[in-house]
Amino acid sequence: MARPIRINIEGGYYHVINRGRNKMKIFRHEKDYKEFLRLLGESCEQYQVSILAYCLMSNHYHLLICTSHANLPEFMRQLNGVYTQIFNRKYHSDGSLFRGRYKSIIVQEELYLMRVIRYIHLNPNKAGLAKKLGDYKFSSHNDYMNNSSNYLWLKINDIISREWVVGKRGIAAYKKFMLQKDDEELEDFYKCTKRAYILGEKDYFDKIHQIYIHGKRYFDREVPEEWKIKQKKIVISIEQRVLKEYGIKREELFCSIRGKDNEARKVAIKLIRDKTGISCKEIAKRYCVGNPRSISEYGRRVRMKRMSDKEFDRRYQRIDTSLRVET
């Protein structure tokens, strides 16, 4: 059987669905849900991805994603891979946690985006896990109802202000929209998701095919060259700012001496990981780090030191601020 088509679009909207292998639970306890949301936030920051809606069920999850760059596969590989490692280590298991490849459905913004949000938020109720919409904790529905979220990666402000029902916007309109009768067209579509990978009208479907399949743009994990060039410029800028702040030579940034802490190197690695979509593997290769997993550990150490060392935190903020001004 052919693998489902993957189309990677800069600024694209995707409904991603991923299920546990053999219908197994991917979230066993409340801490698992929270750990996944923490990783989701880190991955969004690293790959410059936004989440418009989410729902975490015990054996699967739904995400409505907007990719600033054509990098959905890299984002999903990071999110699923790291969570699988944590899950397996915690529960003394091994192997794949998820059932094959995740489903990713391109969503036409104008006509279907808000309908998909409704579909995602209704999942717990249709599964009999909640009597009322607001009863389920691990979805973004209550964030929409409050028009605010504790998660910076959950972008609801622009969405909640849209016209949910004719002539109506805001929270009241969203609530009314959620209480409408079932969307039979959408229900039928999701019954056929093994074949469907674009949710949109025929003109939109044809447009995507023409540009991204017949034109072979950003297709099958291909990353656009202009995006790679932009990422490289950001890396060079970060390294220059770190060198200036620490007053060291370039070669010192890339060296690692056993028993000696290279603070500047860790800061550069942390900033590159946070501000680009470059993978840990690529960063490890650039800085001659043997194990790509160490890149995440460097980031954790920098975060911890910022919390305990005020002078270090001020130094880090100076570099970070100068980068924001520059970009």
Structure description:
This protein has helices spanning 30-47, 72-91, 109-121, 123-126, 141-146, 157-160, 170-178, 184-191, 202-214, 225-246, 250-253, 263-275, 280-286, 293-308, 310-326; strands at 12-19, 49-56, 60-67, 103-107, 163-165, 168-169, 198-199. The protein folds into two domains: 12-214, 2-Layer Sandwich (Alpha-Beta Plaits); 225-326, Orthogonal Bundle (Chromosomal Replication Initiator Protein Dnaa, Chain: A). The longest helix is centred in the C-terminal third of the chain and has 22 residues, at 225-246. It has 327 residues and is an alpha+beta fold. The strands form two sheets. A five-stranded mixed sheet has the order 2-3-1-4-7, with helices on both faces.
How much is the radius of gyration in Å?
A: 21 Å
Average pLDDT score: 86
What is the correct CATH architecture of the largest domain?
Answer: 2-Layer Sandwich
**SSE sequence, one letter per element:** EHEEHEHHHHEEHHEHHHHHHH
Spans of 5+ residues with little confidence (pLDDT < 50)? 217-223
Name the CATH superfamily assignment of the largest domain. Transposase IS200-like
Give the number of domains.
Answer: 2
Query: What separation lies between the terminal Cα atoms?
Result: 46 Å
**Number of helices, counting only DSSP H or I runs of 4 residues or more:** 15
Strand content: 5-15%
> Under the CATH scheme, which class of the largest domain?
Alpha Beta
Shape: globular
| Helix content range | 40-55%
Q: How many β strands by DSSP?
A: 7
CATH topology of the largest domain: Alpha-Beta Plaits
